[in-house]
Amino acid sequence: MKKITSVVWDCDGTLLDSEALFAKAWQLVMKDYNVDVSDETMNEYVGRDDRIVHSELSEKADLPDFDSTMAKLHNRIKHKLSDKDLVFSDVRASLEFLAKNNIKQGCASASPESFLLEKLTKSDLVGYFESIYGGDMVENNKPSPEIYLETFKDLEVKAEDVLVIEDSPYGIESGKRSGAQVLAIDRGIFNDEQLVHADYHLDYLDLKFFKNIINTSI
Questions:
Q1: How far from each other are the two terminal CA atoms of the chain, in whole angstroms?
Q2: If 0-12 CB within 10 Å is exposed, 13-18 middle and 19+ buried, where does residue 103 land?
Q3: 3 state SS of 102
C-alpha cells in the first residue's frame, strides 16, 4: 500500500446513488419513442460517456441531438437532484476526514460538466473538491484515462500519489490506465469479478482504510 496525497472521486454510483435514477430517465425517454430498453442494457452503460450512450441508443430511436437529449433526461429527474438522500451514507464522513488531513480531492465524472456541477452543488458536496472534470471537458471519456490525467494536472499531483475511487468496470479501467491506485467501491450493481482489476475493493467506505493509505509509506 503506497502512501497517497490526493483522492479523485467518480460521482454517479460512487458519491451519489444516482446510477439507477439516470438509467430510469434514459428508459423513460426511449419509451417516448416506443422503444423499451432493459435494465440489463442500462447496466452495461454504467460509467460510460453519455455521448456514447446517446449514439448507440440513437440507432434504436430518432433521438434529437446530444444536448437536447440530455436536457430531456435532466427534466425527467431534476426534482430528484436536490434530494440530499442521494448521497451515500458513507460519503460525507470520508470527504470530511480526507479534507481534515489535507488530502487534495477532485471529482472526475463521465457526466457533462454542467450536470456534474449541479449534482454536486445540490447535494452539498461541491466544496470538498479542488478540481471538477466532466466528461465533455475531454476528447476521450472513460474508459480512456484522459479525464483522470487532466484532473491530476489540475490538482498538480503525480498519478502515483493519487487514489481513484470508482464503482464501475469502465471507471476502474480509466483509473488504472492513468497510473493511479484504484479503490473499487461495491454499490451492488457489479459483481466481484467485474471489479477485480482495482487495487482495493470495499463494500463500504472505511475511515480505517483512508487512515492507513494516507499514513503508510510501504
A1: 6
A2: middle
A3: coil
Q: Which residues contact 25 (CB under 8 A, 6 or more apart)?
A: 73, 76, 77
Domains 6-16+86-215 and 19-77 share a fold: no
Angle formed by the axes of helices 19-31 and 50-57, to 10°?
30
Fold of 19-77: DNA polymerase; domain 1 (1.10.150)
59 φ, ψ (degrees, to nearest 5) = -75, -15
Q: Side chain identity at 134, as an amino acid letter? A: G
- Which has the closest alpha carbon to 145: 164, 173, 167, 165? 173
CA separation for the pair 181, 183 (Å, rounded): 7
For 162, the grid coordinates are: 493519487
Q: Is it the case that residue 217 has pLDDT exceeding 60?
A: no
DSSP 8: E
Give the predicted TM-score (pTM) of the model: 0.82
Q: Model confidence over 144-188: pLDDT tens digits?
A: 999 999 999 999 999 999 999 999 999 999 999 999 999 999 998
- Among 167, 168, 84, 74, CA closest to 125: 84
Superfamily of the domain at 6-16+86-215: HAD superfamily/HAD-like (3.40.50.1000)
